[in-house]
Amino acid sequence: MNFLLKSNKAFTLVELLMAVGIIAIMTGIAIPNYLTKIREQELKNGAQQVLTDIRRTSVKSQTSIEGTGWFVKTTTSTGNYSIYKCSDPSTSIFTDTLKPDTLKFIASTNLFFEKNTGVLLTSQCVSGNLNAPVSITIKHTTISKCTVINVSSSGTISYDETNAIVPCT
After folding, report:
1. Residue 49 scores a pLDDT above 90
2. How many CB atoms lie within 10 A of CB 150?
3. What pTM was estimated for this model as a whole?
4. How far apart (Å, rounded) are the C-alpha atoms in residues 52 and 97?
5. Which of 75, 80, 109, 114 is the most buried (most CB within 10 A)?
6. What 3-state class would DSSP assign to 120?
7. For 87, left (φ over 0), alpha (ψ -120 to 50), or beta?
8. 3-state DSSP percent of the chain in helix, strand and coil, to 5
């Protein structure tokens, strides 16, 4: 008679399949969002890398330790950027590539920083202040999102990391 009062405390096959199905659906939703966040972080890291090198170049121009202005040149096709001295514009002092290789510059840009001031110049190492700001746009080709580094005519370099990632236009 005791066997009739015994309770059954196991899950049924249907209940287990439902739980596995719910977990699979949640995972399917979460993974693409996670991958997008990873790619957005790659874009931010690439922008920080370029930003640091541009700031370093600006400081070198302001301090004039080397007695010359400096400039940064970006290349769209390769994602490379190089730093040059104005006293020897044909020889790159430093060249780096955006990492990972899915990051590219939207347009080729030249930033010329004046000796002693760090002010942006109108053309290659020739005095005369630039009246308009310059923007360097970096694109992540996998997610088609961009981030922008701005350089004012006075040489102020800005990058808003909190609102940095936007759809490319």
Report:
1. yes
2. 14
3. 0.80
4. 14
5. 114
6. strand
7. alpha
8. 30, 30, 35
